[in-house]
Amino acid sequence: MKKLSLWLAMLFTGCAGIPDGVKPVDNFKVQNYLGKWYEIARLDHSFERGLTRVSAEYSLREDGGLRVVNRGYSAQENRWKEAVGKAYFVSESDQGFLKVSFFGPFYGSYIVFELDHENYQYSLVCGPDRSYLWILSRSPEMKAEVKNNLIAKAAALGFDTSKLIYVTHDGPLGE
């Protein structure tokens, strides 16, 4: 019975951990983070596999959380795919550590561990372990110097940046 209780607790709390050595940014201003972000690069995972022109849009929810809309284009299926989720701060609202859910009661970590604090033009985000990594930008293009610095930071923290997928944003973005 003890094992079942532990398993159920893990199932319903989700995976909102932080990889060793990764620290969420402080002085996070959610109002500045709202809006559209373009995916510049990511580590591969099943829910975005094969997608190009990927973006994420964040807005406030009435319950104090965030609404998350992830969108990407599947050339193989010749259609846009969209997932709508919700996110909540794990601790303080000025720390870049949220839990996000696209599937009911199941939450995963969303950790902003590098951020352009001045203009909110780029961010480096990971999940609960080093198999999840995203480089995000406010525009579909990112200066090589900024991108290389973000990749170097992720590599120094143990992410396998040799496996990054660089997302193309060719074609109409608004379809």
From TrEMBL:
Pfam families (alphabetical): Lipocalin_2
Highest taxon above the source species: Bacteria
InterPro entries: Calycin, Lipocalin_ApoD, Lipocalin_bac, Lipocalin_Blc-like_dom, Lipocalin_CS, Lipocln_cytosolic_FA-bd_dom
Descriptive protein name: Lipocalin family protein
Domain Lipocalin/cytosolic fatty-acid binding span(s) in chain numbering: 29-168
CDD domains the record matches: lipocalin_Blc-like
Entry's family note: Belongs to the calycin superfamily. Lipocalin family.
